[in-house]
Q: What sequence folds into this?
């Protein structure tokens, strides 16, 4: 297993990995705004281009992975943020495409496309009063949260976005006073709207809301943390034990279970009352308990870099810090040491700031098998995104391809017995094709069709016989009818001849 | 006037050379020139950081360090030693910088260096790093163990003798990680450094050994002072390693806090060690061990990690206890400094056994 790190800067996009030195640079990619890239499944990466009304699609996994652009999707205008809503209605992962693609523009407009058909389902004109900074779909795609530069956070229901002409958000949170730059939703949630929402903004605060609809009738503000500088990004520990916030002056680690003194731990996110805690950098000689009574929390500073994006690894011990110079530093959280630095492979050194980071665990093929399943899968194209809003009358056709479920192929070197069994099974299938049928042919047609459902030839035989009989009957009828007509014609012709001859004589 | 030549004769005519002009190329020459647009080096990483050229003093220092890294592989031992001494001076300023990782990656292979001055300079460098920030060494303990192990089984006896010193330094700063991840590996290595065999005296394999006391070349000259000093150092290292792994630290009675064990919720909070899940080997590609012949249990335990004191004590007592006692008797009989260390080792082993019997 390995963790794939995909990060884009203002002029480049790189696919690297945390634990091995592989790195690829994706061509012709430039991203101007934050959170402008998203992963579709595990194979495709969509990146919104800077100053062009295009989305570049790259294939980054599997046998057909390439550095060049796989497909370009033209759009009505330049977009800032991208997000996909996954198709979770089907239990088996047969659909290759997610359900919706959401995109936002600098004026606060929100576009909603259906990916399988390319139809533009909704355009919400003033979703936010200024540009939208991040879009995320939560609770398996049932809700969508958007944050904007107008200091608002809106929680939408996906159903509303898709079915209503002018969708209204479910909740609007306007506690922040400057642009909301980033937010994260906790990993612990149920199938209804629940969990915690952490938002950071340029107004130097981080707020935590509780979204549990069983307890509160609207999202409840639990705690506000104030920091000494404007915050740009936030990421959560996978078990929600801590969060890491970053800004122009560095990255702080904020543990939610804050140790004060001897064996006492304070839960910073309790829902007693709306707390305001101010966060300061930890100095040696601080007594946590004293500071806590004054409403202060002493935090460890992980790095001083000017951070623009953060991501946390699978087990929570590594933090990826994307800074304003275009490089990603992988740091160990406990010892605050940089383990690795990843940069785009470009000649010029003006990459710009890191605009988005995606951290994704992938399976690495460790077997020595020489066979791959590459050639059998053909690439497919995402349908072009429409520019006109889909008219809701008439048929709504969606073409979609169901993948053929294949048994995994076993290589002869891995397990020879299993390989022989597999070859024998394939041989058996081949032996059934063709005109020669090895099974017993049953005389009556209906019984034959029921008893051998898996053998297509014997089932087809009685059906063919039936068809033959009906066709023969029809032919017989037609020939009979023709003969009659022919006889009638001959008779008439002879009468005509005789009449003519009698007239001719007279 | 030239006669009209036939086509056949025209083929054999040579072109006249012109003064000052290049030789005329043959008619079948093909130009192999090409312009390379980009070269992709997927396995190499950029060492220089992106950014403007007005570097601050710190960044210039880091760039300087990174340039000197290749000197660690210089053919002259003096250059290598000077590089290590320079790094040691730089440690206070670069201890939190990102160049520590490449620095340590280049320095660890020098544990197996053949020159004694290089090794002693490296030892000083590691001590210095440990003094300033233990966590750096703890983070890279995996690589350190790899090189210490290879030095313990090195064919040059001098390298083998010095491996004990490196292990001692490692135990002091990242002992916790070492005893968890590589308990059996280090014990086996120390045994081979000290020249003690791991098989029981009555088994068939011992008949292959030549004579009683001489198992490895590290004890070739048994009575020289150098060998005696190194024997003493290695015995001390073994003693420290065993103590670190098996004996739980007693709570300090002088500090005001009451001693308390781990609380019930500690395992849910963020663990206070670097790389806490390294022993699960999630992201490491391990080579499959193809040996299907039956081997002793010790081989199987080579790569297992032991997370608590009781397991480590059990492994020690089961596989190593008897061998240690036998060989320690010989050393005590010789007497001197080594004898004293050996006696304390014997005492410690006795303590461990009684502790384990009491717990069991």
A:
């Amino acid at each position: 297993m390995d963790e794939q790190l995909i990060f884009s800067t203002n002029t480049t996009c790189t696919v690297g990995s945390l634990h091995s030195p592989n790195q690829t640079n994706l061509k012709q990619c430039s991203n101007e705004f934050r959170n402008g890239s998203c992963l579709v499944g595990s194979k495709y990466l969509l990146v919104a281009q800077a100053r062009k009304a295009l989305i570049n699609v790259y294939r980054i996994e599997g046998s057909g992975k390439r550095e060049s652009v796989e497909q370009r999707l033209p759009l009505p205008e330049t977009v800032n943020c991208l997000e996909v809503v996954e198709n979770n209605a089907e239990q088996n992962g047969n659909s290759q495409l997610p359900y919706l693609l959401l995109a936002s523009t600098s004026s606060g407009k929100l576009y909603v496309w259906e990916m399988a058909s390319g139809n533009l389902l909704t355009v919400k004109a003033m979703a936010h009063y200024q540009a939208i900074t991040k879009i995320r779909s939560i609770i398996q795609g049932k809700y969508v949260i958007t944050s904007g530069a107008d200091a608002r956070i809106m929680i939408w229901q996906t159903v509303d976005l898709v079915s209503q002409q002018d969708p209204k958000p479910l909740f609007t949170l306007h506690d922040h006073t400057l642009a909301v730059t980033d937010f994260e939703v906790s990993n612990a949630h149920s199938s209804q709207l629940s969990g915690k929402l952490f938002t950071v903004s340029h107004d130097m605060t981080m707020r935590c809301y509780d979204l549990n609809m069983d307890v509160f009738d609207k999202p409840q503000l639990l705690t506000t943390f104030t920091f000494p500088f404007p915050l740009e990004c936030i990421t959560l520990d996978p078990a929600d034990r801590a969060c890491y916030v970053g800004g122009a002056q560095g990255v702080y680690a904020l543990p939610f279970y804050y140790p004060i003194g001897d064996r006492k731990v304070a839960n910073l996110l309790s829902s007693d009352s709306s707390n305001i805690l101010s966060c300061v950098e930890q100095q040696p000689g601080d007594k946590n308990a004293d500071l806590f009574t004054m409403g202060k929390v002493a935090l460890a500073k992980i790095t001083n870099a000017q951070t623009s994006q953060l991501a946390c690894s699978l087990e929570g011990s590594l933090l990826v810090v994307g800074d304003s110079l275009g490089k990603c530093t992988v740091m160990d959280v406990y010892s605050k040491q940089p383990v690795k630095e990843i940069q785009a492979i470009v000649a010029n050194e003006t990459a710009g700031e890191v605009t988005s980071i995606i951290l994704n665990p992938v399976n690495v093929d460790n077997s020595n098998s020489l066979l791959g399943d590459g050639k059998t899968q053909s690439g497919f194209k995402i349908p072009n995104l429409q520019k006109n809003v889909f008219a809701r009358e008439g048929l709504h056709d969606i073409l979609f391809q169901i993948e053929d479920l294949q048994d995994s192929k076993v290589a002869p070197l891995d397990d020879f017995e299993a390989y022989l069994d597999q070859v024998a099974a394939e041989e058996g299938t081949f032996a059934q094709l063709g005109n020669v049928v090895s099974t017993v042919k049953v005389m009556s047609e209906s019984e034959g069709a029921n008893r051998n459902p898996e053998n297509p030839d014997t089932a087809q035989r009685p059906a063919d016989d039936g068809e033959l009989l009906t066709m023969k009957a029809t032919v017989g009828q037609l020939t009979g009818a023709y003969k009659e007509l022919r006889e009638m014609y001959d008779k008439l012709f002879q009468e005509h001849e005789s009449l003519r001859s009698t007239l001719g004589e007279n | 006037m030239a006669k009209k030549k036939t086509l056949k004769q025209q083929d054999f005519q040579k072109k006249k050379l012109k003064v000052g002009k290049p030789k005329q190329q043959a008619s079948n020459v093909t130009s192999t020139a090409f312009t390379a647009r980009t070269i992709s080096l997927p396995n190499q990483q950029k060492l220089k950081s992106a950014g403007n050229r007005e570097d601050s003093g710190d960044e210039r220092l880091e760039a300087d360090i990174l340039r000197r890294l290749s000197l660690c592989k210089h053919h002259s031992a003096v250059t290598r030693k000077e590089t290590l001494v320079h790094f040691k001076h730089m440690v206070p300023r670069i201890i939190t910088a990102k160049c520590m990782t490449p620095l340590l990656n280049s320095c660890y292979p020098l544990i197996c260096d053949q020159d004694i001055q290089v090794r002693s300079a490296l030892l000083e460098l590691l001590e210095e790093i440990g003094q300033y920030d233990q966590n750096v060494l703890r983070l890279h303990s995996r690589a350190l163990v790899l090189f210490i192990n290879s030095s313990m089984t090195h064919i040059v006896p001098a390298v083998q003798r010095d491996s004990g010193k490196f292990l001692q330094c490692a135990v002091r700063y990242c002992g916790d990680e070492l005893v968890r991840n590589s308990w059996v590996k280090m014990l086996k290595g120390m045994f081979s450094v000290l020249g003690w065999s791991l098989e029981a005296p009555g088994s068939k394999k011992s008949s292959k050994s030549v004579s009683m006391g001489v198992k490895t070349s590290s004890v070739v000259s048994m009575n020289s002072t150098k060998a005696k000093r190194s024997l003493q150092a290695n015995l001390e290292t073994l003693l420290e390693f065993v103590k670190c792994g098996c004996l739980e630290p007693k709570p300090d009675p002088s500090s005001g806090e009451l001693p308390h064990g781990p609380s019930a919720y500690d395992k849910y909070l963020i663990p206070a060690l670097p790389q806490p899940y390294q022993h699960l080997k999630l992201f490491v590609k391990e080579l499959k061990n193809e040996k299907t012949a039956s081997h002793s249990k010790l081989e199987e335990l080579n790569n297992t990690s032991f997370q608590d004191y009781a397991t480590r004590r059990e492994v020690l007592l089961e596989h190593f206890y008897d061998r240690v006692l036998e060989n320690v008797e010989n050393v005590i009989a010789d007497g001197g400094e080594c004898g004293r260390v050996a006696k304390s080792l014997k005492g410690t082993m006795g303590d461990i056994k009684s502790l384990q019997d009491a717990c069991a």
